[in-house]
Amino acid sequence: MMVPGRRSSTFTRLLRHGFTDPSAAERLLDGAELAPVRSDPVLLDALGATADPDLALLGLVRLVEAQDGHIAERELLDTLIAAKPLRDRLLGVLGASAALADHLARHPSDWQELVTYEPQDLHPGVREFERGLAQATDPVLLRVAYRRCLLSIAARDVCGTTDLAQTAAELADLATATLRAALAIARSAAPDDAALCRLAVIAMGKCGGHELNYVSDVDVIFVGEAVEGADERKALQAATRLASHMMRICSETTVEGSIWPVDANLRPEGRNGPLVRTLSSHLAYYQRWAKTWEFQALLKARPVAGDLELGEEYVATLAPLVWHAAERENFVADVQKMRRRVVENIPAAEIERELKLGPGGLRDVEFAVQLLQLVHGRADTSLRSGTTLDALGALAAGGYVGRADAVQLDEAYRFLRSMEHRIQLYRLRRTHLVPENDADLRRIGRSLGLRADPVVELNREWKRHAAVVRRLHEKLFYRPLLDAVAQLAPGESRLSPTAARERLVALGYADPAAALRHLEALASGVSRKAAIQRTLLPVLLGWFADSADPDAGLLNFRKVSDALGKTPWYLRLLRDEGAAAENLARVLSAGRLAPDLLMRAPEAVALLGDGDAGGLGPRGRGHLEQEILAAVRRADGGEQAVTAARGVRRRELFRTAAADIVASYGTEETPAVADQGALVDQVGGAVSDLTAATLAGTLRAVVRDGWGDTLPTRFTVIGMGRFGGHELGYGSDADVLFVHEPREGVDEQEASRAAGAVVSEMRRLLQVPSADPPLLIDADLRPEGKSGPLVRTLNSYEAYYRRWSLVWESQALLRAEVVAGEEDLGRRFIELVDPLRYPMEGLGDDAVREIRRLKARMESERMPRGADPTLHTKLGRGGLSDVEWTVQLFQLQHGWAEPGLRTTRTREALGAACAAGLVSGEDAAILDEAWVLATRVRNAVMLVRGRAGDTFPSDGRELAAVGRYLGYGPGHVGDMLEDYRRTTRRARAVVEVLFYGA
């Protein structure tokens, strides 16, 4: 007896086996239909292995119900349990295809087609399928026989007996057999017409390429000739009637549905031209009138039905025209335009789900491969395959496509086609749209072997493969060398000005004339350097084009190349180290900051490679400080020492910026980093460590230059604000406090003069105009602000804080951390201020009101005039200030009791507040997301514009570059701004409650 509220053991087992509706499944298993086998564990295991166990179980019950009598039921169930191959095939099909389950319910004996599995059944061809269709003497019987054959193909597919290429080939062979059967029915219905003419059916498209889908239009072209002695006009009329009847037999809907549409629109003149032409008429059309895309379509022409001799003659006659199509004027540009037109015609609501035609879809692979075939296939007959994957393999073998690129394209194409197959197999409907429903996505994911979290894994893999296709499509499809090869004899390819100009226009260069001058300067001549540039440029241009400012990328590349062109390692690095060229392209086209840093010392390009000198990972403070102090020791005099320190800082800023850009853009090998918070933390930590090491080196240089080994007073630097919080951005000043303590026996005034001199000299040397960016030191958070002395003794700080400290100073001290100088003095300063920033029992009501008043005043008085408060990253609604003041209020109120809150880092403190129950997980996530986004925007503005800013740029190209850094593609700037407003609006609502007590 079941205990109320307890789940049955069957229910639990069903959940464990992947059923999403275990209650319904339990009812089906308890039904009379499955009574003889319900307790057999192999049934549940087999159902659990299917793409959709619920669907498979329902289909099985329907199939058993449809059997003709008890004996037939027992035969099915006994065979199902006893024969694992049948069990896997039958349940696999039922779990993947509701349409084939419907077919089996209508034709319940067809399950026996899956019982025999002899070696010849593993990979049937046209002959085997013709035998399977042999008894079909009318359209209805043909549909039934077609579905029966399709059942066996689907079974091999879902069980993994055949791979994608084999399945697609079998579907094409079945289509061939079906066209032949349909033509035979048409001929038998009109024997007089059949006697008058020779009719050849030429398969085009995926059927011609031997790579058909489960449900697809079957593209054909008809060729007709009169038999000897017959009138040509009457023969063509007869052939047209036969062709039309054949098309109707396949396309029309009967009680058994339809097979697939037969589409003859690829014929000369399309639907406006005659359905059937003679061979000579075809030849005349292609010689005189055909457009570029029509020759591209002929790549896949293959005779499949009717008079095969005539069909072979058709292919042989037109082949020379196909393989000379690349000589046509504007051939490459025509193909490019056609591909763009296809994308432009996709409805906006569908483009993100379009598996075939959308960016990064199947058509991108097919177009790229076909273009390369047409250009290079004139001289290399090994490329003349109608099958995409075979042609891609031949292109790689011939060196026309890089082997790594070919492997990635092959893998992506197989995955995307497999997705397409699974989508179509479910209902046997022609579609290329990825469903939005989680149940459909789960079934597709499981069918592809993604079992841990099918929906998430499927979406991730789909996007990853689509991104690979899109990048490689740009690289192959638009390669400017193609035009040159198409216009010159093989072996004489070069980067021609005409080809390059078309390429630049196609990729959206704003000033193609200037860009062309850069290309000519880089690639002209017969030197080894120019030869390597000609190899690199086609690839680099595609990467530049993936940015918001390809013109800047190319200009910057020329500048770097001019500066380093004579060094032996530069071009070798770009050519031989996989990451270097792409990393450089990303960095040079992402904005002004990184290229400006690089131009001041171009040898930093070596950081972008994979070798010993390369590596974009951040270096810790210890390593940086060690290098800077060593440089200071080697220098003659303070100025030279600080110049060396600033040089290290410039190089490391470039390393950090480059790593940030590459991680944000992603590469062909590695997708963009999804964890935005990790990127923010990496930049903040790296820049803060670098600033601390630079200050330590500068302090050492100033002391050594003025006082030798020992300063008359102990001296330390306390980081404040973002510096103390390890959250510095590229354009941040270094907020600090300077603390000193006279050494034993030293007069306090002398010590103070020495400390003041050190501070003044440090600030001066770090701002001396030079090729290196200045480091601005801001000490305005010191006691008495700008009115107070720049440096104080520890005792002076203690006296001030004891008598005069205000609540805002306690708040500012939350970020205080020792960054340079004597550690013991720094530690004692931190011990001094801890009671101020973490007051026992927290803040009183008056102090809380004062903080809220200061925050409100800052919002009203410091917001720049005319700035949009919804887009200001620092002071705007839900921006940095909102989040930081809210977190700091928690620290002031609860830091005394919660050790986790005693940190200078905003995100760490927010996490501690959440862990302590002071803020809900949802609200903490909202605040964290807004803070990370606002920080990313500030970093992006600095990277793009080369100067700091708290608002989005007004210039369209700069705004697009910020969007690209944040992961938004072309044309999605509006989405970026709306997402920012929505994220910060939600954060402000949380701040109103947590900070203002609304």
Structure, described:
The chain has 998 residues and is mainly alpha-helical. Strands 1, 2, 3, 4 and 5 form a 5-stranded mixed sheet that branches. Strands 6, 7, 8, 9 and 10 form a 5-stranded mixed sheet that branches. The chain is elongated and about 125 Å long.
Compact overview of the structure:
The protein has 998 residues and is mainly alpha-helical. 61% of the residues lie in helices and 5% in strands.
Write the layout of secondary structure elements.
Elements lengths: L8 H8 L5 H9 L10 H8 L4 H14 L3 H13 L1 H13 L1 H9 L12 H4 L3 H8 L5 H20 L5 H26 L1 H6 E7 L1 H4 L9 E9 L5 H20 L10 E2 L12 E2 L1 H10 L3 H7 L3 E5 L1 H15 L8 H14 L17 H15 L11 H10 L5 H25 L10 H10 L6 H24 L3 H7 L9 H10 L5 H12 L4 H18 L4 H15 L5 H7 L1 H12 L3 H7 L21 H14 L3 H28 L10 H32 L5 E7 L1 H4 L9 E9 L5 H18 L11 E2 L12 E3 H10 L3 H6 L4 E5 L1 H15 L7 H18 L17 H15 L11 H10 L5 H25 L10 H10 L7 H22 L4
Parallel strand pairs: 2-3, 2-4, 7-8, 7-9
Antiparallel strand pairs: 1-2, 1-5, 6-7, 6-10
The biggest beta sheet, please? 5 strands, mixed
- Distance from N terminus to C terminus (CA atoms, Å) equals 54 Å
Helix-strand makeup class: mainly alpha
Mean pLDDT: 89
Percent of residues in helices: 55-70%
